[in-house]
Amino acid sequence: MELFKLKDYDLEDTIAAIATYPAKSALGVIKISGEKALRIVAKIFRPARKKDMKKVKTFTLHYGWIVDPLDKKIVDEVLVSVMRKPFSYTREDVVEISSHGGVLVLDKVLKLVLREGARLAKPGEFSYRAFINGRVDLLQVQSILNIVEAPTEKALFSAAEQLKGNVSSFLRRLKERVKNVYIHTQAIIDFPEEEIEVEESWIKREIERIKKDIEKMEKASSWGQILKEGIICVICGKANVGKSTLFNSLIEKEKALVTKIAGTTRDAVEESINIGGIHLHLYDIAGIMRSKSLIERKAIEKSFQKLEEADIVVFIFDYSRQLSKDDYLLLEKVKNKKVIYVINKIDLKRKIDLKKIRHLTPQIKLSALKKVGLDKLRKEILSLVSKEGLEKENAIFLTHWQKEILKKVKENLRKALFYLDKKYTIDFVNFSLKEIIEDLDKIMGVSLEKEILESLFSQFCIGK
Ligand SMILES: Nc1nc2c(ncn2[C@@H]2O[C@H](COP(=O)(O)OP(=O)(O)OP(=O)(O)O)[C@@H](O)[C@H]2O)c(=O)[nH]1
Ligand SMILES: [Mg+2]
C-alpha cells in the first residue's frame, strides 16, 4: 500500500490521549501508542508486585499506582494493559492506563505521560496509524466513526459488520473478478495472432454480473445513509386537521401546541423518534389556510419549504370536515413526494367525501386524539422507507466521494458493455476495466488523495 504522510501526523512520535469522555465517571482510559510507550509507563507506574514494565509480555494486565517521578506523590490506583506490536490496534506498542474517571486525575496522568516523552495525539491519529500500518482499511476506519455515532441498533450492527471487514472483502473479491476479465482482454491485445480461448460472451456475462454487484452495493449504501442519517418525515395538512395532535401522539410527548383554533402552529416543531430501527426526524408544520395575517402567511411559506426537504410526507385529511380548496392546493404541492395519506378524527361524525380521495394510497384512517390506528401508521412509514427492497440488503456506510467513485465504476461498466455490443476493438473495454480496478482501490483507501484522508481522520475525536 502506498504510504501517506499527513502533515502533523508524525509516525515517529509516541502519541497519547484520554480515550474516554473526560467527565466524572467510574473509570477513564489513557491510551499510549508508539516506540516509547512501555518506557514511559515504566517511569510513572509502580506495579503492586515489582517487575520491569519494559519487559512484560503482550496482552497482560498490571495492577499498581501512578506515581509522579519528580515528587514521588501517588496520583491514582490503576490497571495497566499492555498490547505489544504487531498485535495491537495501531500495530505499535500500545498501553492503556485505566484510572478513576475524574477529570483532574485523567488530566494529571496524561500530563505525566506527555512529560515523559509522548506527544498529544491529533484527532483520529490512533486510527490513522491503524490504517497506515495495514491493520484496517478505509472502509473499516469509517465504520469506527459510524459505530460511535450510530443512532439506532440497526445502524450499529451494520457498522460493526463493516468493521469486521465484510464490505472490504466483498470489494476485494469484486476487484479480483474485474482483474481477471482485464487480464483476458490484455491477452487478446498482446497476442492478436494467437487463437485465444476467450469468448467475448464470457467477458460480457462477467461484466454484467459485476455491474449487478455494484448496483447491490449502491443500494446497500443508500440503506446505510438512511440508517445513519435517518429520514425526514413532515406532517402536513390544512389548518386544524390535527397535525400537532398526531405529532404529539407519535412522539409520546405534549411538545407541539394544540388548540381548536386554526393557525395554531407557526414555526415547525421537530422531534426525532425511532421507528423499527429507523431514525425518524419528525416535523409538525403550520397548516395551510388562506390568511390575511402576515405572520400566518410567513408560517405557511416556511411550511412549503420544509415540505420540499421531506423524504416522506404524512398528509392529513379531516374526517369530520368536507374537502376544500386548501386540501387540493396542498395535494398539488406533494405530488412528487412519497406520501402516506391519513384521515384523522374518525371518532367524529363523517363529513368528508371518501370517494373523492379513494385513489390516494397508502391511506390510513385514525384518531390522533384517541390514539387509535397509530401502529398502522408506524408500519406504513417503515414499509415506505424500506421499499425498493432496501432492507433486504445489508447496509454499508460510504462517504460522499466513495459514492461518487462507485457511480464512476458503474458508468465504466456500462461503457464496457456498450463497446462489446457495438464491436469496438477490445482496447476500449480494456481501458475501462483498468479504470475500474483503480477506482475500486480508491474506495478502499489505496492511492487516495491526501485531502480526502485528512478530512476523514479529522472527524474523529482525539483518542480514537
Ligand atoms: N375528535 C378529535 N379531535 C381531534 C383529533 N385530532 C385533533 N383533534 C382536535 O382538533 C383540533 C386541532 O388540532 P391540532 O392538532 O392543533 O391541529 P393542527 O392541524 O396542528 O392545527 P394548526 O396547527 O392550526 O394547523 C384540536 O382541538 C384537537 O384536539 C382527533 O383525532 N379527534
Ligand atoms: Mg398545529
Structural notes for this entry:
This protein is an alpha/beta fold. The protein has three domains: 15-135, Probable tRNA modification gtpase trme, domain 1 (Gyrase A, domain 2); 148-226 and 399-444, Four Helix Bundle (Hemerythrin (Met), subunit A) (Up-down Bundle), CATH 1.20.120; 231-390, Rossmann fold, CATH 3.40.50. It contains 14 helices and 13 strands. The longest helix is centred in the middle third of the chain and has 30 residues, at 200-229. It binds guanosine-5'-triphosphate (GTP) and magnesium ion. Guanosine-5'-triphosphate (GTP) is lined by residues 237, 239-245, 258-260, 262-265, 286-287, 344-345, 347-348, 367-369.
CATH fourth-tier homologous superfamily of the largest domain? P-loop containing nucleotide triphosphate hydrolases
CATH architecture assignment of the largest domain: 3-Layer(aba) Sandwich
Q: What form results from the Cα inertia axes?
A: flat
- H/I helix tally: 14
**How do the strands line up in the largest sheet?**
3-4-5-6-2-1-7
Low-confidence stretches: none
Task: Tell me the structural class.
Answer: alpha/beta
Q: Approximately how much helix is present in the residues?
A: 40-55%
Largest sheet: 7 strands, mixed
Query: What number is the mean pLDDT?
Result: 89
The CATH top-level class label of the largest domain: Alpha Beta
Structurally, the number of domains stands at 3
**Quaternary assembly:** single chain
Number of strands: 13
Series of secondary-structure elements, N-terminal to C-terminal: EEHEEEEHEHHHHHEHEEHEHEEHHHH
CATH topology descriptor of the largest domain: Rossmann fold
